[in-house]
Amino acid sequence: MTKFRAKLTFILILLIGCSMLIAGIFMAKVLENSHIKSLQDNMERELQVITATVDWNRKGTDAELISYYTEQAKHLKEATHERVTYVRADGKVLGDSDQRPEQMDNHLNRPEIASAAANGVGYVTRYSDTLKENMLYAAIPVKNEAKETTGFLRISMSLEQVGKSIRSLWYFLISGLIILFLIAGIVSYRIAKGITYPIEKMTKVAQQITNMNYQSRVPAYSNDEVGQLGQAINRMSESLQQQMARIQENERRLQGVMENMMSGIMMIDREERIMLLNPAAEYILGFSSQELLGKKYNEAKQQYEFTKLIQECIETQDPIRDEMVFYYPAERILDIHLSPIAHEDEEWSGVLIVIHDITAVRRLERMRSEFVANVSHELKTPIAAVKGFAETLLAGALNDKETAVSFLQIIFDESERLNRLIGDILELSKIESKRIPMNFSPIYLPEFLERSLSVLRKEAEKKHIELSMLVDDDIYIEADEDRLRQIIINLLSNGIAYTHDGGKVKVRVEPLDMNADGDYERLRLIVSDTGMGIPKKDLPRIFERFYRVDKARSRSSGGTGLGLSIVKHLVELHKGTIRVDSEVGVGTRFTIELPVIH
Ligand code: ADP
């Protein structure tokens, strides 16, 4: 039982008990009075009956009268059980049922007699000296035919009897009160419970809401103020639940954004502690959030310049944008924005740092400008040659027929080279920009390779190079046919170009990851030659644009330095890989691995 309920029960019991007690006492008093009143009425009636039944105006001597009336009084007492006294008008006692009248003094001044003489009836409660107890006396005057008072008739009864009946009345009343009190207790408890139960329930619900259990509801009670309070709590809880759901949803969304965005986000609070770090920031900075979160920005492990930048932002309270090179965990170029977070009411509440990894962007920019420089350079050489020889011809060499022909041949070769160069550059930029969609179709490799080889056969024969292929009968691949041919022809023509007379160039196909049913997921294409090979130091750069091991050698072979770069791009478009192994003077081997199905 709660304190409130106990208090309420106590107050109710007290209220009910007190009012019942007061009502009980009042009732008992009323009952006692009415009891005495009815007793008096009875006595008066008895007195009237007695006056009517006996002749109270007898003549005779005092002794005769005393003997007669005493006899009558005793007689009457037998019937009424009450003391009967007859007093003559002068106060002399003529008869008494309990006492000898001769021994009794004059009764004219007895209050009941005096009252009877004055009012027609007199009642008095008094201690009787004669009987030694409290007695109730009632007296009326006795009259003759002439309506003169000839005497007084008095009866008295022991108050012991009256007390007894009043006491039993009290007992009855008290036991009734006790029962009523018990009932009042139970009723009070029930009433208190009826009032406090909904309040207790609401308190419980409010506590649960405090503990973030927003599903908790107050049951519907009544439509009174308590019921309305319950409804208000329910509405409050509902609105809290909705708001919490909205907040959680927002938090989830924000979390999703933070976790999935490419930019690194870091937040520093007013105490200069790192209080937020998204996965991108962890990755870029190379430290996990466990290592950084909660730490002071200048105590956490990180690049010194970065710390300085944050410090500057905190000190100046101005947004800062800077580009910075980080060397840990890998070399990166980062674009860093720092902005102080300010709320209306406060001066500032922290710093928001957004980090973009612009390494790739910068590298691309560098590559583009290098590419432009390379292209201009590559174009300049053949153009200079064409221009130079044309000038010489114009200056007079035309007259010497033999020289003129050889110069024109050079001009033709150089313009041819220029054409090839421009063609390759266009091709490369087309592939790089991925403008042309891939056109995958199943290719039967033995036939496809045979046709590719036949294109180069003439060239190989010129240098007495043996061109061969090794491929199983049932090998298919899904690929863009034109591009696959470009790959093979590029590699084979390189092989022919960089192999001495009498050498060998081979192409071989091997299925990879073959299972028991003879199905394979990948294919390996190997183009190998017995040529001059590539020095080790050049191997890593071989696929770069315009990279040539030996400019003179390449030029004599008519190469542009773009072939392998194109090949690599085409292989990647097929989701494949390419690698090169080579030994100077022994030969070179290009190995391509391609998935069979796209
Ligand atoms: P190029 O048009 O000059 O041949 P590539 O990109 O095809 O340009 O090749 C780049 C360089 O790689 C060539 O200049 C050459 O030095 C070297 N190279 C390519 N293939 C071979 C090979 N099979 N054997 C030896 N060197 C090769």
TrEMBL record:
Signal peptide: none
Catalytic activity of the protein: ATP + protein L-histidine = ADP + protein N-phospho-L-histidine
Domain named PAS: residues: 250-295
Source organism, top-level taxon: Bacteria
Main location as per UniProt: membrane
SMART domains per UniProt: HAMP (SM00304), HATPase_c (SM00387), HisKA (SM00388), PAS (SM00091)
Database matches in InterPro entries: BphY/WalK/GraS-like, HAMP_dom, HATPase_C_sf, HATPase_dom, His_kinase_dom, HisK_dim/P_dom, HisK_dim/P_sf, PAS
Transmembrane segments: 169-192
Enzyme Commission number: 2.7.13.3
Domain HAMP span(s) in chain numbering: 193-245
Signal among keywords: no
Subcellular location: Cell membrane
Entry annotated with the keyword Membrane: yes
Coiled-coil boundaries: 233-260
Keywords in alphabetical order: ATP-binding, Cell membrane, Coiled coil, Kinase, Membrane, Nucleotide-binding, Phosphoprotein, Transferase, Transmembrane, Transmembrane helix, Two-component regulatory system
Domain Histidine kinase: 374-598
Protein name: histidine kinase
Organism of derivation: Paenibacillus germinis
Organism classification: Bacteria, Bacillati, Bacillota, Bacilli, Bacillales
